[in-house]
Design brief:
- This protein has 284 residues and is an alpha/beta fold.
- The chain has a single domain, classed as 3-Layer(aba) Sandwich (UDP-N-acetylmuramoyl-L-alanine:D-glutamate ligase).
- 36% of the residues lie in helices and 24% in strands.
- It has 10 helices and 13 strands.
- Helix 2 packs across helix 9 and helix 9 packs antiparallel against helix 10.
Length: 284
């Protein structure tokens, strides 16, 4: 890994869903927290991904694929009585996805006992990443809160990432209140114009770029024009690059531009976690 990436290496706990994106002609492993974890790992960070798969063919395939992508699988539990998560994906003419979430799923059964929480605390994580879909289940929400209580020094990154039928305004408001940094797309920002007390925020606008605020530093960052293969995972890549910029202490303009570049690169290739290298981001 290139030295500049490792200079600001941090430890991130990413908690939430791992699932198979089921397209009409193929299946690809995904889930926003999983995609985020893969991209953050490629940016040189230590990522501990916390989720669960079923004791089934998809679950075994997910464990193998996660390892291939460089993620440690110790945080991936096996829930024998639940199927590995899946979501049906349809793409419109512009490559934008529509998701149908299938539940119950194994990722809802992640449990963290006192010993596991102690070991996670000993890892001294800098950030906890979480999203709405995982927290929509009360059991999962309690697990998330126990994790936060165990590592009170970690900053909290909330990727709002709404899915049809899987959130309420009250839930989003509760999660916003827990966050130090928030990422939303422009549609979500219209639904929830008050982003709470989060110190940092990014609003993604597709090909129009993004709006970034880090403390009192604000910037509107133009997007990059690419031939879109599909946009699945592009927002998760953006989120990983955004957290990277926060950790590095970059300005809002530099952080937003870097996140736009990685998001566009991923959108130009099929799949949520296509191969890419730091050199392709214009970094020597």
């Amino acid at each position: 890994m290139i030295g500049w990436l490792l200079t600001n290496q941090m430890t991130i706990l990413s908690i939430g869903e791992i699932l198979w994106d089921v397209f009409p002609d193929k299946e690809r492993l995904g889930g926003a927290p999983f995609n985020f974890a893969v991209h953050a790992h490629r940016l040189g960070h230590r990522v501990i991904f916390l989720s669960a798969v079923g004791d089934d063919e998809r679950g075994r395939a997910a464990l193998g694929r996660a390892a291939e992508l460089g993620l440690a699988t110790e945080g991936l539990q096996v829930a024998a009585d639940r199927p590995t998560g899946s979501v049906s994906v349809r793409l419109d003419g512009e490559g934008k996805p529509d998701f149908t979430i299938h539940r119950p799923a194994a990722y809802d059964c992640l449990t963290l006992d006192s010993g596991q929480l102690q070991r996670l605390a000993e890892a001294r994580p800098d950030w906890i990443y979480f999203g709405t879909l995982y927290a929509a289940e009360s059991r999962s929400r309690e697990t998330l809160r126990r994790l936060m209580d165990a590592v009170p020094g970690a900053r909290r990154f909330y990727d709002v990432n709404l899915r049809r039928g899987c959130y309420t305004p009250e839930l989003v408001g509760e999660l916003l209140s827990l966050a130090d940094a928030v990422k939303v797309n422009d549609d979500e920002a219209e639904l929830f114009p008050d982003m709470g007390e989060a110190r940092s925020m990014a609003i993604t606008r597709g090909e129009r770029g993004c709006l970034v605020r880090i403390g009192n530093d604000r910037a509107e960052c133009p997007g990059y024009t690419v031939k879109v293969a599909d946009t699945v995972g592009a927002g998760d890549a953006f989120a990983a690059a955004f957290v990277h910029g926060l950790a590095a202490g970059w300005s809002a303009a530099r952080t937003g531009d870097f996140a736009n570049r990685l998001g566009a690169l991923v959108a130009s290739r099929a799949g949520a976690v296509p191969q890419w290298s730091p050199a392709e981001l214009g970094v020597a």
